[in-house]
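User: quick one, fold this
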Amino acid sequence: MTMSNAGGRRRAPTIHDVAREAGVSRGTVSRVLNGGHYVSPAAQEAVNAAIRRTGYVVNRHARSLITGRSDSVGFLLTEPQEKFFEDPNFNILLRGCTQALAAHDIPLLLMLAGTEDERRRITRYITSGHVDGVLLVSSHSGSPVAEELSEAGVPLVACGKPIGLGSKISYVAADDRDGARDMTRHLLSLGRRRIGTVTGPLDTPGGVERLAGYKEVLTEAGVEVDDRLVVSGDYSRLSGEKGAERLLAQVPDLDAVFVASDLMARGVLTSLERAGRRVPEDVSVGGFDDSPAALASSPELTTMRQPFDRISAEMVRVLLAQIGGEDTAAVILPTELVKREST
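Assistant:
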């Protein structure tokens, strides 16, 4: 349907046009646009069909004045900007959350806060009502962002269980500990006994849980947990490279490495090749994530697959429920061992 004024120029369709086309009241159209409460399925379908036919587009600014909502969500990454471009996991999560929100016609705003000043500015921006809720990625213990947003009443869902905040924050996480246990068992099943690990940052839930799973399985198998076999990284490729160099210097008879991310594992492979160690003949290497970095490695990387699509979808589902007034929630999703050439 084409809307035109007396001068022949096309005008934008209005809510009144939608109501007339659907054969319902303006109030019914308004209720459909604001969530469909107290609207029959038949009326909702008639309104949606009328919106498609007329090409009506919601005036978000006008609606926000009425509802007090911005009709947008923030994707907050509390890492330096270079991490966003280096680590493929962040882009995968961003894409998945964007797609999940698009089904609800809600835009996603990317926010990077890698410094203290950036965190303060973005926290002020969020608590001023510019977004309806926040998807928080890469939360570090000691960082006040999650607690400040929670105390301000901002709906919030973290990717990974926030350390030290208990049930105060909703979160969606892969089962990091169980995934680490599965990978360590796999390396043990290959006859490896001098199994090192390059951990993630130990102020993040993934870093803590993956290290715990590694240690638990070695202890259960009667293999000594040697502190020289544990070095920390920061999920960057360079930290994996440096971590492997330290492991080889401290434990020359190293025969396997569990690496807490695929990107770090690529760095580990670089150091092993430089040292003349063959993978997997001399040293087996297992990663975590099943990100594009796993397939870009040479050899291709055995890894623990995180269900990123499900994580993104669940983060959006839990956040929208919280925006709608529901309580906090926790979702933990299983990981899967993917065997490739590096073990």
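User: anything notable?
Assistant: The radius of gyration is 25 Å.
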